[in-house]
Amino acid sequence: MHIEISGSTPSDPAVKAIKTILDDHGMDSAYVGNKSRKDIDCIIVTGGDKGVRNYFHKTPDPQIPILGVSESETSGFLAQIDLKEFSSYVNRIKKQDYEISEFTRLGVKIDGKPVSSVLNDVAVFPSKSAMLMEHILRVNREEVWHDSSDGIIISTPIGSSAYSMSAGGPMIFQDSSVFGIVSVNSLDITRRPLIVPDTSVIEIDDIYARLYCEVILDGIDRFKIVNTLECVKSDPPARIIKMKKDSTAVSALTKKVKLAEELLNMPPSSKLLLKTLEYEGILTQRELAAKTLLPDRTVRLVLRHLLDKGYVKKKISIRDARQKIYEISN
């Protein structure tokens, strides 16, 4: 069995730890790019759920099954295994004793130019917050609405419980053949989220704001947009190895609902930090301040409150023992 390992660099501590474990079990492994892809049985991706999404933005071949590994003790939905327990799953990996789930992806064109396909969602927002954006939504070339809102999100089923749900969108089961569309904080109070077949051609055009607008792919990549976004189902789907049977769509959505109920009673700054951690994954205090634009003192006080309440966990970074990192608690 031939395995590749994907991480930030070959010297990444998580990559080196996984390679050492595989070598100890007599398994052939290498860093991504060091072997012919046709010889690869699976790829192990570090970095948790965010690392998995980032991997699929870069890979030329999404058909090779991948196994996501988190560097913390918190398992995700795409990355079920944490680094500390990885060695206990090696024999199952060796025997290929696992299930492979397929996840629908969205193919994206910005102003006619293809960019990375997304696993979770594609969003269009003004480059500066607190600014309205006008747009026209078309589905299968027919106009659905002409709207003014904070932005718009198009999500896959797996992405429906992320950014889209935070904006009031529906939670969609993984095996549903649909996409979700949410206009964020529309001026039209009757505007409701839409569910469309995944065979649809979704277009956002005539996009206008006082400053330029951006397309955000899976919360990772950002591109300036002039006028038109087009989204269609991207084939083939992402293939992800599942080692645990208890990480189902139902259990994942149940956790999201519980967190959403708890968010109602929190101050805005706490909500913002929690949603940022939920979407971005593990972050340092400095990274949280940069992404939320909150003052350092506010971030520090909010983190202390969230730690006391048990909503957030603080850990030591595996890459830098001097660095503290934060993540949402299970």
Describe the fold and architecture.
25% of the residues lie in helices and 34% in strands. By secondary structure, the chain is an alpha+beta fold. It folds into 3 domains: 2-97, Probable inorganic polyphosphate/atp-NAD kinase, domain 1 (Rossmann fold, 3-Layer(aba) Sandwich); 104-236, Sandwich (Tumour Suppressor Smad4), CATH 2.60.200.30; 266-328, Winged helix-like DNA-binding domain superfamily/Winged helix DNA-binding domain (Arc Repressor Mutant, subunit A), CATH 1.10.10. The strands form 4 sheets. Strands 7-6-17-14-9-10 form a 6-stranded antiparallel beta sheet, with no helix packed on it. Strand 1, helix 1 (13-24) and strand 2 form a beta-alpha-beta unit.
Keywords:
alpha+beta; Tumour Suppressor Smad4; Arc Repressor Mutant, subunit A; 3 domains; 8 helices; 19 strands; globular
